[in-house]
Amino acid sequence: MLKICCDYLEQHGLKIAFIESASAGYLASQFALYKNTGANILLGGLVCYDPWVKQHLLNIPAQLIEDYSAESLEVTQAMALAGQNLFSCADIIVACTGLLKPGGSAYSDKPEGTFFISLAYQGKVINQRYYFKHAPSLRLNALISAVCQLLLNTLPQDVTTR
Fold it and tell me: At 111, phi and psi to the nearest 5?
């Protein structure tokens, strides 16, 4: 799935950037490692694992984090929108928060293994919630597959290159 996604981005001349919390840079690293095209498709990324980074570097309001938690769809969407300003040369911003391992804001309706992805592309933000039952290391593999699938489902097949 990663190969198909990276090939698509490369063929269409699209640049991607990541704003990551729970995945702590894993998503960007996987796109960077993909054959020789990492530099052709990956603009960069920001790891904002701690809420302080969300608040002070991305300007996510503390009240939003307090109201919804640092691992929420609302905060993830705000991260994607902030990423558009931070990485203004990127065609696509992928923001991700979640509960990779025990701790954080887990509760019965948002158990460990819950992730939120927001994809900003052409003035729109697509939000998704996922749940992965696997062990933390396997959750990251499931997460990269989910991100790639979301990208491929969202990006038009007839997009023109820049």
Answer: -75, 165
Q: Between these two residues, 90 and 109, which has the higher pLDDT value? A: 90
Give pTM, 2 decimals: 0.92
pLDDT band (50, 70, 90) for residue 161: very low
Give every strand in the sheet of 42-47, ordered side by side: 42-47, 16-20, 92-98, 114-121, 124-131
DSSP string for 48-69: --SHHHHHHTS---HHHHHHH-
**Percent composition of the chain: helix, strand, coil (DSSP 3-state, to 5):** 40, 20, 35
Contact between 95 and 76 under an 8 Å Cβ cutoff? The reply is yes
Measured distance CA(12)–CA(157) in Å, rounded: 9
Q: Give me the pLDDT at residue 36, please.
A: 62
Whole-angstrom distance, CA of residue 162 vs CA of residue 158: 13
Say what the alpha-carbon torsion angle 34, 38, 42, 45 is, to the nearest 10 degrees.
70
Nearest CA to 9 out of 139, 119, 142, 123 is that of 119
